[in-house]
Amino acid sequence: MQTVSQSVINISTMSIYDASKTNTSKRQSRKFRDIDLDFSRNAVTNDVNVVEDVTAIKRSVRNLLQTNYYERPFHPELGCGIRELLFENFTPITALFLRNKIAEVINNHEPRVELYDIKLDDDQDGNRLVCDIYFYVQGFPGPQVVSTYLKRLR
Hints:
The protein is α+β, with helices and mostly antiparallel strands. It has one domain (28-151): Nuclear Transport Factor 2, Chain: A. The protein contains 3 helices and 5 strands. The strands form 2 sheets. A 3-stranded antiparallel beta sheet has the order 3-4-5, covered by helices on one side. Strands 1-2 form a two-stranded antiparallel ribbon.
């Protein structure tokens, strides 16, 4: 049989363990929704389809990367500004500038994510940069990845 002091120790140890554990619940308090940029039609409601949760956030991150300053009406501050760096020779300094610009735009304009890592790799045969962005989404377990190609267009 356990004494009262041993059960108190077991309960306090369990509460410390429970407090340090991360939430593994599949339930989230909010749904993230956005319109589908393919503008496909919903057969039931006859309206534009929507994308939800992680897919909506991934598309938002990709749109932030592809937006240049002064492209969005009434929001000149919104943009990444990485297009001007794509015409430079790819050096470690250029990679550092690209990472900083990507991190800045995501941290400033996407409050639903917590940035984890940005990986850049040059694809010299395709004249492009492969950009992998790893981040955590609030209410979803595990890191999410957005992979995109940054390519010069003339």
